[in-house]
Amino acid sequence: MAVCLLLSLGLSACFEPIKDTHPDQVLTKRRALFKQTTRAMEPIGLMASGRKEFKQDELLALVQELEKLSDKPWAYFPADGNYPPTHAKPAVWSQPDAFKQAQENYQASVHALLLAAQAGKVEPVQRAVDAVTNSCKACHRDFRYE
Ligand code: HEC
Predict the structure, then answer these.
(1) CB 3.0 to 4.6 Å from 14: which of 8, 28, 112, 116, for a disulfide?
(2) Is there an atom of ligand 1 within 6 Å of 70 CB?
(3) How far apart are CA 120 and CA 115, in angstroms?
(4) pLDDT single digits (tens) 118-133
């Protein structure tokens, strides 16, 4: 609080961590994993679209990171994990099979991207990146509020 006050004197935005009421902080943990996922995905997207130089070794390292993260967030949606300020839709808990399917589709798209990154050809990488982006979006459309 004191730090927050001090900072707010000099800065327009004051960093305030979310209040996570769960004993295992599952909301904080899954959000941190989605942020790491986004941090890996952004430069991958830039390389695929030509806005960043295509370097196979860099791409591969990022995709390996993305794959390592791809099965991690799901453990942090336990039965008692639906509480504010989550943006997850109730469907995560009421339609577990569909949620699981969306995870599997996503993980399969990430694995296909890994194979494309290993092969190192730009066009297949672009298509695989599009497929990953679409599987993020598909899950968000069904299971996350904007
Ligand atoms: C199987 C479903 C699913 C997939 C696949 C998925 N997400 Fe999400 N994502 C969610 C859900 C559900 C939330 C809401 C979490 C919450 O607020 O409790 C979320 C939240 C997020 C957030 C917000 C985190 C925050 O701090 O509030 C980001 C960013 C994000 N996802 C990025 C991605 C990216 C990038 C991908 C693909 C590379 C992806 N997600 C794939 C379900 C998914």
Answers:
(1) 8
(2) no
(3) 9
(4) 999 999 999 999 999 9
